[in-house]
Amino acid sequence: MNAPAAPLSPYSSAIGKPNIEVHTLSVLVDNEPGVLARVVGLFSGRGYNIESLTVAEVAHAEHLSRITIVTSGTPEAIEQIGHQLERLVPIHKVTDLTLRGNAVERELAMIKVAGTGQDRDEALRLADAFRARVIDASIESFVFELTGAVGKIDQFIELMRPIGLVEVSRTGVAAMSRGPNPT
Amino acid sequence: MTNLMTGAEMVVRALRDQGVETIFGYPGGAVLPIYDALFHQKHIKHVLVRHEQGAAHAAEGFARSSGKAGVLLVTSGPGATNAVTGLTDALMDSIPVVCITGQVPTHLIGSDAFQECDTVGITRHCTKHNYLVRQIEDLPRILHEAFYVAQNGRPGPVVIDIPKDVQFAIGTYIGPRNIEHKTYRPRLDGDPDRIEQAALLMASARRPIFYTGGGIINSGPEASRLLRELAGLTGFPVTSTLMGLGAYPASAKNWLGMLGMHGTYEANNAMHDCDVMIAIGARFDDRITGRLDAFSPGSKKIHIDIDPSSINKNVKVDLGIVGDCTHVLRQLIDVWRGRDLAPDTVALAKWQAQIEKWRSRKSLSFKNSKEVIKPQYAVQRLYELTKGRDTYITTEVGQHQMWAAQHYHFEAPNRWLTSGGLGTMGYGLPAAIGAQMAHPGALVIDIAGEASILMNIQELSTAAQYRLPVKIFILNNEYMGMVRQWQELLHGGRYSESYSEALPDFVKLAEAYGAHGIRCSDPAKLDEAIMEMLETPKTVIFDCVVDKNENCLPMIPSGKAHNEMILPGHDAELETAVDAAGKMLV
Lengths: 183, 586
Ligand SMILES: Cc1ncc(C[n+]2csc(CCOP(=O)(O)OP(=O)(O)O)c2C)c(N)n1
Ligand SMILES: [Mg+2]
Description:
The complex is a heterodimer. Chain A is of the alpha+beta class. In chain A, 28% of the residues lie in helices and 40% in strands. Chain A has five helices and eight strands. By secondary structure, chain B is α/β, with parallel strands linked by helices. In chain B, 38% of the residues lie in helices and 16% in strands. In chain B, the strands form four sheets. Chain B has a six-stranded parallel sheet, with helices on both faces. In chain B, helix 15 (375-386) crosses helix 16. The A-B interface holds A 1-2, 4-12, 15, 30, 33-34, 37-38, 41, 45, 76, 79-80, 83-84, 86-92 and B 120-121, 124-125, 128-129, 132, 134, 149, 154, 182-184, 272, 292-295, 297-298, 307-309, 311-316, 561, 563-564. Magnesium ion binds next to loops of chain B.
């Protein structure tokens, strides 16, 4: 018996062409010790990807933290990731913002650029165009702060590369849904 | 009774308030305060095992045979790490277990103190949830929460790691009634629209099948009763995974036997050719599905499971219903009755005729012998001679486990305890001890292999101490038979390290532990020897010397589909059955 319609599953992506998507998941968790390890361990243990991850407390009195994870995989794998996250006991809510399709996503980056003369002028001009702020300056360097969508930051970093990029520090994506309702 | 007490006293009090009467454990420095608290009371019976893995499997055996949570108590460091296999086993098979571990005092955590290990770190991946109790104020809540989490939703093991200073600290105890979980509230009722759709799909089915699993047993005896009712109403045939045996009576006419790698020909072919599959509390494990892209290609699949992540995980289904089996089965029956639905009896009769054709292939048959005991025959005789009794069967892992599943038949849930998901050799004896503790008057038999039994043989000492009349029925083929079979299948008969060399004399071994030993190698004397075992009111090791080279059939070779089974008498096909891709799958 051969070639029936292949039942797709997150673990059968070897069958047929994998259709990889990038999704942003917003995960509201109880801010208890070990919760981040549980989430990260779930991803490593089950072989899921983490493109970026941010975590911080968002409601002190209620002990709530929000973990924002950018992950990639087939749609089936991403659905599975959502369910696996929901299985973790200290998790309140998992929202796939990409699936919802109405999220705002922002990242903050610090970018150090060193150089003198023309390169230095060019760096400043580009920073201005991207609305990056100078948060540190020395005679031969700047640290820029840039907030925006991931793509914008990527683009800025690429532009800085030939004119003295030294290093980059990025926060990873923070995101939430648009409109009056909570994510 | 005052509510001011030490952490250790809280542990004992909380166990009592949770209805726990039996725990399995092993003491050590980091749990001495709890052992002291146990010493001062008589409500909770502590069973001293001989290895912490044994405690975990015993707790599992207790849980699976009784439906209640199993509890174990072990010390820090090696006590905790020894329990890890049992915890993983409970996770894979969704068994409610609460494991209390001692920990070094909080101020020493992280200092590589004596017998310190990162218990919550180590067990994070092999528990449903775990806790490190940092202060006495959290202890009562965590204790009760742990029982709640272990037993609700998809059950599983929960670890509570309690540092020694917290065990000594004094605090206020809170009872279980005042505790509610913040986040964990599993869904019990299925979505009514989906139930409706499922019922309609079932009524329109021409070649239906119920594919049932351990979830029905975990859901409680009512779920098994409802399954019988629904199968009775619809007349649909029923198959089950290894984990689900007993949920549906093996004597029923529409029972197909177990499915999967060593399942029956009729069950696997019916799975392959069905047009509507109703999966209930089963998880489409690779031992069940065989080759995924050829798995039941023409069917509409309904999947009922309490764990949303099980749905669409391995196999994409048409209708997923999240809910507890008992609730969903009841809802389905209500809709079926309420809307006066009826099966397509004409189509069903044709389907049953087809199934009878498959059944007539007698896929569990074997060539019996007068010279040597065939392992299948041994299980058949054991079944025939024990079937009227109040019996619980545990197993180790290997061929004997599959033969037990094929040839021992179950009429009721919670009677069959086997390590399905993890496949842990060494499970059966401690699990039998757990089951015997839960059912003191019952007949508890571990159907074992000679290799597996040695993995937790030390628990014979436990059985002796508590005078537990467990019966260890070893199908002794002098091989790690399942490994030998795979080596025959995949590696040209090169039996690398799978011969059980230097075996003990099991009869003398029994005697050394104060148990009774029996050896039998003659098919003609087998019944008599089994009767001797059954009539001996103490622990028995039965060394059943069986054919060394018997293969476990039928079999779906890995990488193959349900309708590509190898049947008994076709052993020769085994050597060529698996291609390179299948070899990888194992
Ligand atoms: C702890 C553990 N180690 C290794 C294995 C791999 N394994 C599966 S079956 C088996 C052989 C079991 O031999 P025996 O208990 O004699 O049973 P038989 O197959 O001969 O009936 C082995 C080694 C396992 N399942 N569990
Ligand atoms: Mg053997």
